[in-house]
Structures are given as structure tokens and as C-alpha cells.
Amino acid sequence: MSRYRGPRFKKIRRLGALPGLTSKRPRPGGYLRRKKSRFRKKSQYRIRLEEKQKLRFHYGLTERQLLRYVHIAGKTKGSTGQVLLQLLEMRLDNILFRLGMASTIPGARQLVNHRHILVNGRIVDIPSYRCKPQDIITTRDKQRSRALIQNHIDSSPRKNKKWVNHLTFRPSQYKGLVKQIIDRKWVGLKIKELRVVEYYSRQT
């Protein structure tokens, strides 16, 4: 299954807020009232499927990529669900989004693909690159690269908010630091990761 490129509001209405997919919010209105009127009790399968879809669309993954991360998390010591979230959060495209260097994860992926981003002084053009503690994230010393990042910083609704605890960002230097592996309580996405693990355990 390929990466989703369809209407983003459609997914937000169905699954709830997905800040990594889009920074925009749907207008409140009649849709919500209509949705309540046809509310039906969800099956356990549907609950697990929706939790899986939240992860997939928020982080911008294909079905195959998410399944691979689940397998890696299952082989890693610790809670499979928490390890899964940590693996996804430490992706380079997500780190850029968290730092405010991109307004969405697809936008961060484009920055990486176009070779605007350096990790520890070296160009990295793989959005799924797994960052590690003490990694330094910067932009290339080019006017266009810095202009793109500055535009995202200026327009980001998070620019006046406190950065998440596992990251440090210096906007004036276009420089971010990964201080440590993210803790579950800092993820900020309303997700029941155990449901995702259960979904894939029943598929294999």
C-alpha cells in the first residue's frame, strides 16, 4: 500500500487530530452533528484498525513500513508498544517536525529528500534515518535551505511554545540537538499503541 496522498481533512474527521499530517484544522459544523446521529458501537477490530491508521497517517508511513517497525519493536527489549512509538519518533523527518523546522511530517520529508538537512555535519537524504542521542541536526549553509527553514519557524504555531524535553532547538543557528530517547509521556499523540500491536499480532 502506497503512502497516502488523498484529502487530509477526511482522515482527521475519522481519526481525530493528526498534527503530523496537516497543521490545519477542519471547520466545526454540521458534519459533527451528522456523525453523532449515526453513531454505532465500534467492533474491537475497528478500534484496533483506527489506532493503527492514526500511527500510519500521522507519521506518513506505508503499510509495509509500519509493519516493519512493529517487527523491530517486537524483537527489542521492553514494551513493544512504547518501543514502536520511540522508533517512529526518532525518525529524522519526525525530529524536524518536532523542532518546528517543518510544519508537517510530509514537509519535513521533502526537506530531507531535497538534501537541505545535515546530521552531525553530513548530508542525510533518507527521511527514515534513525536519530540517536547527541545527534546534531542543522541545515546546509545555503541561503535557500535556511530561507525554507525560517519560513516554517515563522509560520509554526509551536514557535512560542516550549520544545519537547528530549530535544533542544536554537532557531537563530538553525540547529537542533537530540538529547535523549523520547519518553512515552512526551509523544503528545492520542494513541493506544497496544491496540496497534494487537492489530498486527492478529494479522500474522
TrEMBL record:
Domain Small ribosomal subunit protein uS4 N-terminal residue range list: 3-89
Domain of life: Eukaryota
Entry's localization field: Plastid
GO cellular component: plastid; small ribosomal subunit
Keyword terms, alphabetized: Plastid, Ribonucleoprotein, Ribosomal protein, RNA-binding, rRNA-binding
Protein name: Small ribosomal subunit protein uS4c
Record-level GO BP terms: ribosomal small subunit biogenesis; translation
Coiled coil ranges: none
